[in-house]
Every structure is written in C-alpha cells, then in structure tokens.
Amino acid sequence: MIIRRPPGPRREPRAGWVAVGRVLGAHGTKGALRVESLSDVPGRFAPGAAVWLQAVRRVIQSASTGKGALILKLEGIDDRASAERMKGEVLEVPEAARPPLPPGAYYTDDLIGLTVVDPEGRLLGTLEEVVETGANDVYVVRGPRGELLLPAVDDVVLEVDLEGKRMVARPLEVD
After folding, report:
1. Is pTM, for the whole model, over 0.85?
2. CB atoms within 10 A of CB 60
C-alpha cells in the first residue's frame, strides 16, 4: 500500500521532527523565502546551518530580517517560482537537534496532548495549547469542566511527566 501526503503545504512537522519556521512566501527573484521563526535557539538560522524543507536537507546560504520576518536563502531554491511553491510549508529539524533544557523547562510541543489531572487524580482534560504572556505561559486545558486556563507556575503545575504523558495541576480557586 502506498500512502501519499495530501496535496498542499505541510502544516505540521513529521513525526520525530520539530517545526522551527513556517514559510510565509517568496522574497525577491532569486529564491529567497520570507519565514516566520518558530524557534528561539541561537544560531538556528545562521548561514551554514541546515533545515529540512519538504523532507529535503537545505543549507542556509544567507539570513537577514525584513518586515517582521526572516529572509532566508536556502540551497537548491534558486528562483521566485520555486520559492512561491514553498508558501505554508514548515522548516524542520530532527528532535535530537534541539538543545537540552534545564530541569523544569519544557518544549511547548512536548506539553501539547498531555493528560492533566488534579492532585487527587481527577481528570481535568487535555493540554491543547500554550499561550505565551508577558509574565508566564498559560496552559489551555479542555475537558469535562470545559476550558481551564492554568498559569505555568509552580503553585499550579505540580508535576510534569513527559514519559507518562501526564501533568498534575491544581487549578486556581475562583471566588
């Protein structure tokens, strides 16, 4: 049986890969791409670094910023028409290429999908989204009680077990 990817851009990374950017469109006539960065890893988009686009390894030839986006020139994309066909695609790197985090810090995509329970083990729901705010992230959990917004602080998030795909949290009391 042959399984084919549906036509159109890849919106999510492949299994075992992490999205580090999303192509917004073409820039100029020589194949440069306007890219939304999804990574805060220093040097991720430096010339000479590699990313994968449509499952093909591409070396970054040049990188700059312009109009709120990165402007990347990737090896093998040499004209505007080729660059335009990449609109909506994700730039990926293997999960193993992510730098290690300090204890208690987590990559957002590792948290999405965790089952969230209260300290007594009652189901609160599934962590479906992480909202970045100025002070701290907020976890959006949807479940039997509807939508819960849990601030990502030690008093609320008591335990994160990535291997067990589980989080223990104490929702804030609302008066």
Report:
1. no
2. 19
